[in-house]
Protein 1
Amino acid sequence: VISRRSFLAASALPLAATPPRLDAARLRNRIEDLSVFGRPRGGTFADGVSRIGYSDTDITARRFVMNLMREAGAAPRIDAAGNIFCRRDGAENSLPAVLFGSHIDSVPDGGNFDGDLGSLASVEILRLMQEHGLRTRRPLEAVVWACEEATFRGNSLNGSRAAAGRLRPGEIEEVWAGLRKADAIRRIGGDPERIAEARISPGRYHTYVELHIEQGGTLARDGVPIGVVDGIVSIDRHDVVIRGMANHAGTTPMADRQDALIAASRLTLAVREVVTAEPGSQVGTVGHLAVTPNAANVIPGLVNLTIELRDLSSDKLDRIAARIRARAEAIAGETRTSIQMTAGLRNPSALADAGVQKVIESAAHSLGLRARRLPSGAGHDAQMMATVAPMGMIFVPSVAGISHSPKEFTAWEDCAHGADVLFQTVVALAA
Ligand SMILES: [Zn+2]
């Protein structure tokens, strides 16, 4: 529980004898309010949300959240990358602030908790501080990162990557669905010409904390209400181009075929075999496959596919990629195709700070909540922030481990628990 010492009175207001708890009903209302931006026409909360980063829907939702920030007495500020920050002064404003937040964009047909919970809980914390006239020693700053989910050429963590100074050269000139990334950033109030100014230098923030749904099923399965993330896995993408020869499906004998889809099928199975050949929690997926010409009566001449590999250890991922590459060469020879495998985006793994993990754990315990350490198999803005500040993440259970789906759900009680742990954590860090 937050000690009286953690708070300094903002004015002549006395300190609360019992530190406040976040208003669980209001947090739920906020999540329900936000869900209408991007809800399918005629649908309900249970039908999920499509709130693609940089879209009109995203822009109206961002406006809604910025109004909540104003109601919380904190003026929002949009940086050059389109990230929204809002700050509550501390008693000693020359000290680096404690930063906390998440994102509000979604995948197509996504759920109402991924990103939304952490973002709205963060704004609620500022609101609660305002209502109770409470002040910490360090400033507090909430953030809503721009376009966390993949949009441009499959690039994710767009806003936080800019803040970490990790955009690729020329990335803001890339075009997706007819929209230049620079123009997309401008649409949401950013300034692509000054994108470098969005960069956060190490030391600017004291710590970064993110509350998020687990998106896996381990906490829900074991009935543990709070997860303390020890690290976020690296995500490596490889683009594969397989060239065979398109030919008549009726007149070409089986022995004479150079079928790119046969090669792709064998490679897909090889990915599974290589990934499961050594112990550990690494995962590998062929999730995207484009077959050309993709016609019933033509032998596939070309297949583009993606291989995605995830683990906390980059060395292990390099080892696995090399083995897959060797298998690809063999398969190309056997199927008389060519297989070209190119390393794409690597979001490096990020370890949570040991000190921040301890603070989260004691916050949970002081609230009488069980907590367990676990890695995150999903990518998060927090992994970018880990490159500029000590980072910590709080997970709450996802029912049945379902996410990136309208069926994504976290019990309201668990949402409130997570928000309370976030609140206690940032106040302890800012003390
Ligand atoms: Zn998310």
Protein 2
Amino acid sequence: VAELISEVIVFSALEKSLYYSTPPELQDKVRVGSRVLIPLGRKEAMGLIYALHDGPVAVPAGVNIRPLTAVVDSSPVITEELVALCRWISSYYFYPPGEVVQAALPAGIEITPLTFLRLTSVGREEVKSGYSSELVKLLVREERALLQELKGKPDFRKQLRKELELLEKKGWIERVFECRPPAVRSRTVKSVRLAMPPDPAASAKNESLRSLIRALEQGGEWIPVRELRRSIKNCDYWVRKLEADGVLQAAEIEELRESQCAQSIPPVVPPSLTADQNAVMEAVLPHIERPSFQAFLVYGVTGSGKTEIYLRLVEETVKQGKGALVLVPEIALSTQLEALFRQRFGARLAVWHSGLSPGVRYDQWREILAGKRSVILGVRSSIFMPVSNLGIIIVDEEHDASYKQEDRLRYHARDVALMRASKLGIPIVLGSATPSLQSLNHCRTKRYHLLSIPGRVLDRPLPTFQVVDMRRERGGSRIISNALRKELLETVQNGEQALLFLNRRGFATFYLCPECGNVVQCLHCSVSLTYHQKDDCLRCHYCGSERPVPDRCPDCDHGALTAVGFGTERIEEEVKKILPGAGIVRIDRDTASQPRNMLKLLDAVRCRRADVLIGTQMIAKGHDFPHITLVGVVNADTALQISDFRAGESTVQLLMQVAGRAGRGEKPGRVILQTYNPQHYTIRSVVNMDYMEFCKEELASREKLQYPPYTRMLKLLVTAPNEGVTRDAAHLLASLSREASDLLSEHNRHVAVLGPAPAPVQKLNNRFRWHIYIKGWTSQDLQLFIEAVMDRMKTVPQLRRVQIAVDRDPVSSF
Ligand SMILES: [Zn+2]
Ligand SMILES: [Zn+2]
């Protein structure tokens, strides 16, 4: 009989799989994706079955295969399909497999293994004949003791290990394993139902009793007592009475927790599709009906009706009995979309974002895993949802940077989505008004299929543009130009709404000493602090720490500091001066960090309680405000100041998105762009609303400089609390990288090593940061390179003093 070997990964930074034999009594219970208890050194640990092998596997010599201790889950917590996806993620993003799987599971379901000690029957007999110790006395008295607790008790700690070893060898003491239940559990509520037909005569006497019985008769299945209390007087008394009489049965029944974020919107009749929308449907549908992998890029300007296409595609997928996964970039976007999706898909819909409580997430996840919900609308991490029989993946605003996770597992949800679709052999639809250059390039090379929707729904005209050259602005404030002020006044007087966009929150950008030029910086990060007027403090936008505004320059101790630059908080104050008494709503991370607050603010705009909406990029995306006719971009240059080859791309994408907020109703929109660089090609592209023209220019320059999408990038980020240690390790890692690169080029594989250099933010949360960029011409070359470097790294002790993060296809450069 071939032996069944379980390949197990543990939920820690261990890179390799472990192998265990499967005891006969567990052979029926082991399944890929189930959690198991395993011996690991002298401890017990939690692991997950990564694969099952019939017969011998190649294990390193000297490794002793031990048996699994127990199977924890009665059914797998992660599907085999997702396990395979995690395997790919682990190797592509260089992240330990156990931690990848952990990221794919909802928080709070972790189980802690507990080890109990107890006397065996042999031990019990022997103890009677005289052997005694504190440990034995305790076990006689309390039947069993938790090992983890004993280790913490001073009386036991010293002797415990020796004695345990001795008594275990003698067979007097044994270990019993149990698991502490997870932190997040299902919720139950007290519910009742009829157990037998009530005696009509008995109930005739009392009105409350009559209505209770009526409710029970009409309710059929379990009814929560909480609901009955609303309409029935003395409800609890009568419930107790009927339960005692055996007329009703009471029990704790599970109640599902739902997302409470959806806005209520009046029922909408689905609009009929335009010819362009229909063309998209016709291209994608065959791939849903006869499943096959194909990536589509739907390029449509804002207002072209992409959402309706998504809804229809999901509808068709559901009709085929399959599931659909719809990814959206940010929580604000998902709350508005949620209402639309809920209207169409009702109880089939599950939503997934960070604003949900762990309990809601847990319930939704279990429903998805059980196959009860087939339509999932969610942010980045919903790419890990265990949708059964997945039939389509849709990634809206595919260019959005929030799909990239910037810490720990640095994955890009769009790229993972493409891999998932291709492994499953199903279509994937990427949508955007401003597609990423990467995706556009894939269309040119025919890897993706490009579907354009050139017009807006109902042929609404695109907004008109006015560029204001801030260098020539005289008089008034240098924040809101005369032209913008005039338009603002007119718009509000006409009963219309205006939106002012500035991608920087706070009041002043930084505090400067006019004597020595010192800028007040964060004590933990090498970035300037932003002044927030409401709390009268300086705040770090990277680590969140705060400090009061110093009276004098902390460096030279001369004169008072001056506030320089401005953020959304300051804009709000300026608008109050221009339009006293006008309704103003400001949306940024200071006012709308909670989804609930965000909804309240958005509602104020939608119900026209606000005349002016001021905000950061949080308001740039997705929202449909039909009464906004004026959009003012307060400083179109902010994003351009970043030293990143993607700065132009992200600026154009953001500005076009903001401009797209104007004139989504019946009245045409106007956009005012304030800039110090009116001739810059990004500003010109926005004004002409010609994204493709911009892309042509940008792609040509990227090709010349051999930047992505013509090459692939990888960043090695070295961090440590000590500056010298970080710098030295970065230099060491760079020379290791160059050795590896030389070796690869002998095999005709080429990568370029750039750096090391201090990262743009040289210190973050008290850790110094250096980076090395690796450029590769194919993905395989980069993969071989990083495997070679990782192997070498392990042999260098100095590198153990720093943290090295691998960032594949990096998006941000800070
Ligand atoms: Zn100074
Ligand atoms: Zn900081």
